[in-house]
Write a structure and sequence with these properties.
CATH superfamily of the largest domain: Butyryl-CoA Dehydrogenase, subunit A, domain 3
CATH topology of the largest domain: Butyryl-CoA Dehydrogenase, subunit A, domain 3
Mean pLDDT: 91
Bound molecules: flavin-adenine dinucleotide
Largest sheet: 3 strands, antiparallel
Shape: flat
Strand content: 15-25%
Number of helices: 13
Number of domains: 3
């Protein structure tokens, strides 16, 4: 194997726009050592005494040597050579800095990716897109068992973005959340995007695809709990405030709903915390990750109960959540006093505050939020799969056997050392 070189040369023809890769001949690399040596050999072979310096036949060769980019002091140098317009013969310039290192490490080996992936949140705001494989892959899928990072402006990458649910940016009255936060989701199309080796983490090793996908899920689901716990606090607060503004906070069914919302919000928070506090550390490595069981249960729990929660909040809010006039009418001198008079709530609460709260509930219980909560970070089925595969059924079965006094010789580390159950009185 050729050491000190990546083994390929990139050929750019500015007249035709063509881009080609060419292998470096090992014998030549050994004979003509260094950037100067290789550049001289190329120019000797490909130009003649008659080549005019400023003609398309002249070549500009950017070349690094075998020690460029290594730990050797002062090795970050590269050369640019060609037929010089000043002399009509060989001309060379040397330069240092980061470019030399980048040139040396710009691997021309890699993979070409074609296809599309939808739903990618905030992609246009990112520097890099991280691409992961699917969970269940077999040997036949190995061409697709890839994981890599790609700059968002890479050649061949197209981002087709979703429309914001709210298009009136800055209209905080009507869309308190939607006008200030826009989750931009895009469909990303890869049109023969070249990914160099140094950006690839998985290249055909299909056996590890599931591990990568599951590990991503652990972190991603925990990240959802952290934002959802805060959102649910706000959600429960909006319902409690609305009940107060409407003067129904003491009604038995409203108190029940507020109690349920409180349990829902607090349980989501606690499960997210449990995933962090009972994190898993991988032996023989520095890797620590969220507890997969708790992270999956927390995501499933809040997503599965979300529609029940929005139902309660919308119920307390009343039909006005759907039919409320817009801020344009509320602040229109012709209609302001009418709306102030007829859309007010309990005495002592201003109509403006009530309307602001109604708009917040409308925003929080929108269909975008519904779908986001259910599907983002994986659908309910995805968490069920993880939870089932992580479940320690042997432990649960051992507990049941102990209680039922089933002695079948199987031992379990948690239960075999415990006294008999139920205890003798
Ligand atoms: C707002 C939002 C943001 C998102 N952001 C990102 C992101 O940044 N990056 C990212 O990678 N993804 C993102 N997602 C994608 C999210 O992970 C998926 O939406 C989710 O995994 C569900 O997949 P799907 O949308 O393809 O639905 P589908 O897979 O089509 O699911 C629809 C229904 O079909 C069922 N189903 C599907 N296949 C089967 C089967 N084989 N057997 C039985 N039932 C099946 C599902 O359980 C579900 O009930 C985002 C989604 C949303 C809504």
């Amino acid at each position: 194997m050729l050491k000190g070189y990546n083994g390929k040369i990139l050929r750019l023809d500015l007249s035709t726009g063509s881009i080609d890769y060419e292998s470096i001949d090992e014998d030549i690399a050994r004979k003509y050592i260094g950037g100067v040596g290789l550049a001289a050999k190329i120019l000797w072979d490909e130009t003649t005494v008659d080549t005019a310096p400023l003609s398309p036949e002249n070549e500009l060769v950017f070349m690094a040597g075998p020690v460029t980019g290594s730990a050797l002091p002062k090795s970050s140098r590269y050369i640019v050579a060609g037929i010089s317009p000043a002399t009509g013969i060989w001309g060379q310039a040397h330069s240092g800095g980061y470019f030399a290192d980048e040139l040396r490490h710009a691997s021309l080996d890699g993979i070409v990716v074609r296809g599309a992936k939808t739903h990618i949140s905030q992609a246009p705001l990112s520097n890099e897109i991280l691409v992961l494989p699917c969970r269940a892959m077999r040997e036949d899928d190995k061409d697709y068992a890839v994981s890599f990072g790609v700059p968002v402006n890479a050649q061949g990458l197209t981002l087709i973005c979703s429309e914001p649910e709210v298009s009136e940016a800055g209209n905080f009255f009507d869309h308190p959340i939607g006008s200030s936060i826009y989750l931009n989701d895009s469909t990303i199309v890869f049109d023969d995007v070249f990914i160099p080796n140094e950006r690839i983490f998985l290249k055909g090793e299909w056996q590890f695809a599931g591990d990568i996908a599951y590990m991503f899920g652990n972190f991603h689901r925990l990240s959802a709990e952290t934002y959802k716990a805060v959102e649910l606090e706000l959600f429960t607060g909006a319902a409690a405030l609305m009940a107060e503004y409407n003067g129904v906070e003491k009604a038995a069914h409203v108190r029940d709903k507020l109690t349920w919302l409180t349990m829902y919000a607090e349980a989501t928070e606690v499960m997210g915390r449990a995933a962090c506090e009972h994190c898993v550390s991988e032996p023989d490595s520095d890797l620590v990750y969220p507890n997969p069981m708790y992270a999956n249960i927390a995501k499933f729990f809040f997503a599965d109960n979300w529609h029940q929660a929005t139902k309660y909040v919308q119920d307390i809010g009343g039909g006005i959540v759907a039919t409320c006039p817009s801020s344009k009418d509320y602040f229109n001198p012709e209609t302001h006093n009418l709306l102030d008079k007829y859309l007010g709530g309990k005495a002592g609460i201003t109509t403006e505050h009530r309307l602001r709260l109604i708009k917040l509930i409308r925003n929080l219980t929108s269909s975008y939020e519904d779908v986001l909560t259910l599907h983002a970070e994986g659908s309910l089925a995805a968490q069920r799969l993880s939870i089932h595969s992580l479940a320690d059924f042997d432990r649960y079965k051992a507990a049941a056997k102990r209680a039922a006094r089933i002695e079948d010789g199987t031992k379990h580390p948690v239960f075999s050392d415990l006294p008999d159950f139920p205890c003798q009185y």
